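hiii so um. not sure if this is the right channel but i have a protein structure encoded as tokens and i wanna go backwards to a sequence. like what aa goes where. can anyone help
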């Protein structure tokens, strides 16, 4: 397994048990793409797909009239020299030319994988986990060197890519586009899946046909966004959950991005993904380099579910860095929906006390504890305690919470500032905004200019003081508005095209510093719910608040859609009060918990306010979750029935040893007079005998081939008499 270089044919074959990725050198020296997909023999020399133009409109060089870039499959193509498709990069030179020609110069193959300076990236635990190929290409005229990085993983159907652009010449270069990957496929008979939505309905799957024209998604919001996620699946048209070819593409990045598929008129498909080139311009002086973010390519020959399982394992093992990596996540209680900003110490302690009685492990104090933060017009930027609400400080409160036997966690929103804050009054030029123009506000707040190191420093120092003077185990890092008027005050005009990216680098650097200073902390990322749920964030924060929509019924859709690209252990999911704050819908506390348990699990309400019966149920839910959370969070996920396709949705998790499975079944609106449907399970040991909810004896093959009834005629469970009723089955090996 690993990477073979066929010297004579100049072909690189990256392979493991599941996949092959073959790269060649084109007749003109450019790096070409030969194959990506199911594993083929590594000794196979792959023939170049059509590269010869058949009509005069195809352009070629006179040294080789049989070769045209227009027909070639390329690894990191430019525009302007015969390839008319979307390019991977574009570099403006001092003489005004954008024409470039990168040709292969050398390569290096080594065990392991390096990090990318300043950026999140997948990592190896040991060098034998992966093999890396670096291909160096140069344009001698403009003095450009581009290194293409490819890492193939030993045990995963995954290849990671990124590129480094270096200025080897004497003149300035202006990098106008540097994407993370280009993948040219020989045909375009594919369907594209994107995960889109908005606040409170994040990551709904949506399909588009790819066979003609351009298909594109983007975020220009300065963050990866709730509107569309930087994760895309390209699959064969007949691929479904259990069969068919599917390719996943994650951008390990939390800022502006683009993903585009372009079917050309020869029936081929180009896919590119990376930092959005709009408003991007990165000048490189002699000797300087620019690294793109990483893209993760995952592959399945047997359906979407298998693709998701590979992705889950990969992100959990090679992206998440945290003391909580592959560990059960603490069951938490968050005060936001219970109090919003209207609290004092006693109110908080009351909520926490009840949480302790219920069995929760971590209490999280949300927005409103700092500066003059009594509403969302003031306080952001002032990370010192609001002594009117908390006279004993964060230290005093955290100690009292710890003394109850609970861990303590804190909310922050470190990238933002209110006009009404000490920070803004002292540093009005620390905010993003165009000179002499009004700023667009979002939730009455402005965006701090994280492209300036002094801003990041100041916030770090403030947070360091709070955290180091209290006992804090968890931080919820929120971000509640998109970026507008992206301009860095007092900075040279030619540096302005860097600001969006430098902003994100600033965010990453603050995470890095806090993680280093406080390695015990579990970070949860959040952006008005799930508006920055991406692989880049997972590198720092192993879990992300999935959505502000905690309505049980809506959450089935949101969590189901999220599960295509992200592991269950990353999905922040809580039981909140009913009727729900976002939808006004009433769903029972049991039904609300039956969806939240397919996530990190916690509560987002005042448990003092619920009835004694409900409280007793909460205590049982927590006990149940403590017993089964490892299976929920790290078991293999099987999506059984999509809430986007049917009224009743279902999914299940199976422990790695196949001894325990948990099946969640979720009904939408009641339908009268339905027949008995059987839900076929997956992932069980076919020859083992299982019980369902502690009774019966069922072979695994029977439960998978025949199934369990989704409605009980006797009516004592999943009765179907209520809208939005749910049922959780516990399947255990005897
Ligand atoms: C948005 C988050 O998604 C909520 O959970 C909460 O933390 C609020 N911000 C607080 O302002």
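sure thing!! here u go:
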């Amino acid at each position: 397994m690993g990477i073979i270089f066929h010297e004579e044919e100049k072909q690189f074959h990256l392979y493991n048990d599941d996949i092959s990725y073959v790269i060649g050198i084109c007749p003109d020296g450019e790096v070409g793409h030969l194959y990506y997909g199911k594993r083929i023999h590594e000794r196979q020399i792959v023939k170049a797909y059509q590269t010869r133009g058949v009509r005069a409109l195809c352009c070629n060089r006179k040294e080789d009239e049989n070769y045209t870039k227009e027909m070639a499959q390329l690894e990191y193509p430019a525009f302007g020299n015969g390839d008319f498709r979307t390019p991977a990069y574009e570099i403006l030179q001092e003489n005004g030319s954008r024409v470039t020609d990168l040709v292969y110069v050398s390569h290096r193959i080594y065990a392991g994988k390096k990090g990318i300076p300043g950026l999140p990236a997948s990592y190896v635990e040991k060098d034998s986990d992966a093999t890396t190929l670096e291909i160096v290409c140069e344009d001698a005229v403009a003095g450009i060197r581009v290194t293409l990085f490819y890492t193939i993983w030993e045990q995963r159907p995954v290849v990671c890519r990124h590129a480094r652009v270096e200025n080897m010449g004497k003149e300035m270069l202006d990098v106008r586009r540097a994407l993370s990957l280009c993948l040219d496929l020989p045909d375009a008979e594919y369907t594209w899946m994107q995960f889109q939505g908005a606040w409170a309905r994040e990551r709904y799957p949506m399909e588009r046909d790819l066979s003609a024209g351009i298909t594109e998604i983007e975020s220009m919001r300065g963050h990866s966004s709730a509107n569309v996620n930087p994760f895309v699946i390209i699959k064969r048209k007949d691929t479904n959950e259990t069969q068919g070819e599917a390719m996943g593409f994650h951008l390990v990045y939390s800022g502006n991005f683009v993903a585009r598929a372009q079917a050309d008129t020869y029936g081929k498909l180009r896919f590119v993904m990376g930092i959005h080139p709009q408003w991007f311009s990165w000048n490189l002086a002699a000797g300087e380099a620019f690294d793109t973010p990483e893209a993760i390519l995952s592959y399945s020959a047997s359906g979407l579910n298998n693709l998701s399982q590979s992705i889950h394992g990969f992100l959990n093992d090679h992206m998440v860095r945290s003391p909580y990596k592959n560990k059960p996540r603490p069951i938490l209680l968050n005060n936001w929906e219970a109090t919003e900003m209207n609290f004092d110490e006693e109110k908080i302690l009351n909520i926490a006390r009840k949480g302790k009685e219920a069995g929760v492990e971590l209490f999280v104090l949300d927005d409103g504890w700092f500066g003059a933060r009594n509403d969302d017009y003031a306080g952001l930027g002032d990370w010192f305690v609001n002594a009117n609400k908390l006279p004993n400080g964060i230290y005093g409160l955290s100690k009292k919470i710890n003394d109850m036997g609970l861990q303590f966690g804190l909310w922050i929103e470190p990238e933002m500032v209110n006009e009404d804050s000490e920070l803004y009054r002292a540093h009005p030029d620390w905010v993003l905004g165009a000179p002499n123009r009004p700023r667009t506000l979002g939730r009455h707040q402005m965006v701090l200019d994280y492209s300036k190191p002094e801003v990041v420093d100041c916030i770090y120092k403030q947070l360091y003081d709070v955290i180091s003077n209290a006992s804090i185990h968890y931080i919820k890092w929120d971000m509640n508005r998109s970026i507008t008027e992206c301009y860095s005050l007092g900075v040279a005009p030619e540096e302005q095209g860097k600001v969006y990216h430098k902003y994100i680098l600033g965010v990453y650097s603050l995470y890095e510093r806090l993680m280093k200073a406080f390695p015990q902390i579990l970070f949860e990322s959040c952006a008005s719910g799930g508006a920055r749920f991406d692989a880049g964030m997972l590198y720092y924060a192993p879990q992300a608040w999935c959505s502000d929509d905690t309505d049980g019924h809506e959450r089935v859709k949101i969590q189901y859609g999220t599960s295509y690209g992200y592991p269950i252990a990353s999905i922040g999911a809580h039981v909140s009060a009913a009727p729900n704050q976002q939808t006004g819908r009433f769903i029972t506390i049991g039904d609300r918990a039956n969806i939240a348990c397919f996530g990190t699990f916690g509560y987002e309400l005042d448990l003092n306010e619920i009835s004694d019966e409900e409280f007793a149920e909460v205590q049982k839910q927590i006990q149940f979750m403590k017993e089964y959370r490892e299976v929920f969070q790290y078991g293999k996920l099987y999506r059984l029935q999509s809430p986007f396709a049917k009224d009743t949705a279902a999914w299940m998790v199976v422990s790695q040893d196949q001894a325990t499975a948990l099946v969640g079944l979720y009904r939408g609106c009641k339908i009268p007079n339905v027949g008995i449907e059987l839900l076929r399970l997956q992932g069980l040991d076919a020859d083992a005998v299982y019980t369902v909810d502690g009774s019966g004896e069922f072979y695994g093959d029977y439960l998978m081939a025949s199934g369990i009834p989704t409605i009980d005629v006797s009516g004592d469970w999943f009765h179907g008499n209520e809208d939005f009723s749910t049922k959780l089955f516990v399947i255990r090996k005897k």
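oh and The domain at 332-631 is CATH 3.20.20.70 (TIM Barrel).
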